[in-house]
Amino acid sequence: MRIFSLVFIAMLSLTTFAPASFAATVKVVVNGDTITDYDISQRAGFMRLERRGKSNSDRLRLAKEELIDEALMMGELKRIGGSISDRAVNDAYNRVAVTLKLSSSKLTEILNAAGVQSTTLKEKLRAQLAWQQIVKQVLRQKVQISDLELDLAAREEVGETTNYDFMLTEIVFLNTTGTTRSRTNEANQYRRNFNGCDNAVDLALSYRDAAVRKMGRRHSTQLAKPVAQELAKLNVGGISKPRTIASGVQMLAICAKTAAEDLTFVKNKLRNEVGTEKLKDEAEEYLATLRERASIEYR
């Protein structure tokens, strides 16, 4: 939700909008639930704070469709026996305020100054919580990813130059003294004299502010691609070229290297990525189906 612009708009504008005083007129009926012109106007006002929509008329159109979707969400949650408590909504409202570094009362004040009631945001949050519950209860079990799919995708992702497991030791020449250039020169000298991980610490004692740390096991896909590609070309006992990092100049020494047969790490990463994408597609399709089956009367 793009609500961060709320603060900037409210701070830049000194105009206070008076609440509308007209009687609300029903504009849409969704499965028996009504949406009024006041609901639409309020949501369009909130969208203006989010900087959504190209014009007022565009925002009114978007607001109407968004409110229809949310009415469908709330109706579906009720159908499956779920509910969202006022406490859960208030907690979500408070989290929005905290994210904006505001108190809840200040957030309400900012909304009111723009002519938007806090209930407008709260009802939007209620619908979001409802949809999250629907996705968890109904859709998540539908998203199945076969191990064969994951195996094929994992092998394709790792490729020839990244399908390795390493035991690595990190050597960093810290930027506490000297320039990056002088530290790089010292690192290159260390690299020329390096003869294996067992002597990494002893060799480092010959240099000022050189730190040695065992990184443990790393799969190629856990490393930056250029680093993984460089290490793939080195043998055990080799050491990478110096690279500048925030704390100084870094090199990685290979203490052990094996062709990776266990793709668990890559598969878990892909499972999350593919699962999230499939769940998103399922949710969009589910909402579209709810729309198709709904009774929506525009007035």
What overall geometry do the principal axes of the alpha carbons give?
elongated
Instruction: Characterize the biggest β-sheet.
Output: 4 strands, antiparallel
Strand tally is 7
The appropriate CATH architecture of the largest domain is Orthogonal Bundle
* Overall number of domains: 2
Which whole number gives the mean pLDDT?
Answer: 84
State Rg.
Answer: 29 Å
Separation, N- and C-terminal Cα atoms: 29 Å
The CATH class name of the largest domain reads Mainly Alpha
At the fourth CATH level, what is the homologous superfamily of the largest domain? Porin chaperone SurA, peptide-binding domain
N to C succession of SSEs: HEEHHHHHHEHHEHEEHE
The assigned structural class equals: alpha+beta
What do we call the CATH topology of the largest domain? Answer: Triger factor/SurA peptide-binding fold
Number of helices: 11
User: Low-confidence spans: pLDDT under 50, at least 5 residues?
Assistant: 7-16
Can you give the helix content as a percent range?
40-55%
Task: Report the β-strand fraction as a percent range.
Answer: 15-25%
Strand order of the largest sheet: 4-3-6-5
